[in-house]
């Protein structure tokens, strides 16, 4: 067994699990990335992963792997950079254990993240939200579950992983109703619920039953709906709702679109950006600023407050009513 194999094992057991106490999502993401890397090297060189050494994972090899992810597997630039971050984390750990490979490790760490285009976020307008919420067949039990999930997602802006992890005791429907979740970075937060959402969830819970530790939104086997299942659920109902609201076909909404929709509704209501960041569980308000870029009405309001070129500054005075009448003839 080479030096790479025990270093890779120690990276997960010592660095991620023991020292950093990383979340299961982080560990799973790093695991999947490094499995892809080792499989790529085996496919291109024929070397078995357990016999790989650091010299087999130099900067050119990592570069070819990143190109493979983009061109052959169709990953976005953002996803490519996530994989690179996992590889960098492994090599920073390896630098402490194997200084004899410092030059090779330094060249890998020098690989830059790739810049990509940032598209405007997609969100739903009120008519599209109404059409989506009306799509589930509420004469059926599964339709009532889907309707409850959709209205909770739109109103709270929970991430798909947070929706999947909800338990019955995370929902508090008494005075000051709220939903509790453990979000990204293991940050706990509570989100208030509107009267409409409380009414829907009360009817859903009365039918749902079960112990307080049971999943709030179970699948056919009683286990929580996974992220892929929730994504397919949203997409299915969006396609159905497109028969009455064709604009949904162009937006192709998924679970994160509902999160964006919640943020935009808060912004349109006059909620400040810091409060929206707390609502969504963002680490900083800088992440939330993407909604300012997407909000066309805010830009139009700013434009309306500016002085057109060639005009004299001063306080606006309305024209004489008689002159205004004659001008309008």
Mean pLDDT over all positions: 87
Question: What is the CATH architecture descriptor of the largest domain?
Answer: Orthogonal Bundle
Distance between the termini: 92 Å
Shape: globular
**If you consult CATH, what is the topology of the largest domain?**
hpI Integrase, Chain A
Low-confidence stretches: none
- The class by helix and strand makeup works out as mainly alpha
Strand content: under 5%
Strand numbers in spatial order across the main sheet: 1-2-3
The CATH class of the largest domain is identified as Mainly Alpha
Query: Number of helical segments?
Result: 17
Query: How many discrete domains?
Result: 2
Describe this structure in words.
- By secondary structure, this protein is mostly helical.
- The chain has 2 domains: 4-109, DNA polymerase, domain 1 (Orthogonal Bundle), CATH 1.10.150; 129-253, Orthogonal Bundle (hpI Integrase, Chain A).
- Helix content is 58%, strand content 4%.
- The chain has helices spanning 4-19, 24-45, 59-71, 77-97, 102-109, 126-134, 141-156, 160-165, 195-208, 227-241, 247-251, 255-268, 273-280, 285-288, 290-294, 296-304, 321-327, and strands at 171-172, 178-182, 188-192.
- A 3-stranded antiparallel β-sheet has the order 1-2-3.
- Strand 1 and strand 2 form a beta hairpin.
- The longest helix is centred in the first third of the chain and has 22 residues, at 24-45.
- The protein is globular and about 90 Å long.
């Amino acid at each position: 067994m080479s030096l790479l194999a025990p270093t890779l094992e120690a990276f997960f057991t010592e660095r991620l699990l023991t020292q950093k106490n990383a979340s299961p999502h982080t560990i799973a993401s790093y695991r999947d990335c490094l499995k892809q890397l080792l499989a790529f090297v085996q496919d291109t060189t024929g070397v078995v992963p357990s016999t790989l050494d650091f010299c087999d994972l130099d900067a050119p090899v990592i570069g070819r792997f990143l190109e493979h992810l983009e061109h052959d597997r169709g990953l976005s630039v953002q996803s490519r950079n996530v994989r690179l971050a996992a590889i960098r984390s492994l090599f920073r750990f390896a630098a402490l254990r194997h200084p004899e490979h410092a030059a090779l490790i330094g060249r890998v760490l020098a690989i830059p993240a790739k810049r990509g285009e940032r598209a405007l976020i997609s969100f739903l307008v009120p008519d599209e939200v109404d059409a989506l919420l009306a799509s589930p067949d509420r004469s059926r039990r599964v339709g009532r579950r889907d309707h409850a999930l959709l209205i909770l997602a739109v109103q709270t802006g929970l991430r798909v992983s947070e929706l999947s992890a909800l338990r019955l005791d995370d929902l508090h429907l008494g005075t000051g109703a709220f939903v509790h979740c453990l979000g990204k970075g293991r940050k706990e937060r509570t989100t208030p619920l509107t009267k409409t959402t409380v009414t829907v969830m009360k009817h859903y819970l009365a039918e749902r039953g079960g112990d307080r530790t049971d999943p709030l939104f179970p699948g056919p086997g009683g286990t929580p709906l996974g992220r892929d299942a929730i994504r397919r659920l949203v997409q299915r109902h969006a396609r159905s709702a497109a028969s009455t609201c064709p604009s949904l076909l162009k937006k192709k909404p998924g679970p994160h679109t509902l999160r964006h929709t919640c943020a935009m509704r808060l912004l349109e209501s006059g909620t400040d950006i810091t409060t929206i960041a707390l609502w969504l569980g963002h680490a900083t308000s800088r992440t939330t600023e993407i909604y300012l870029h997407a909000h066309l009405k805010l830009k139009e309001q700013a434009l309306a407050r500016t002085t057109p070129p060639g005009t004299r500054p001063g306080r606006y005075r309305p024209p004489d009513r008689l002159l205004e009448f004659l001008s309008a003839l």
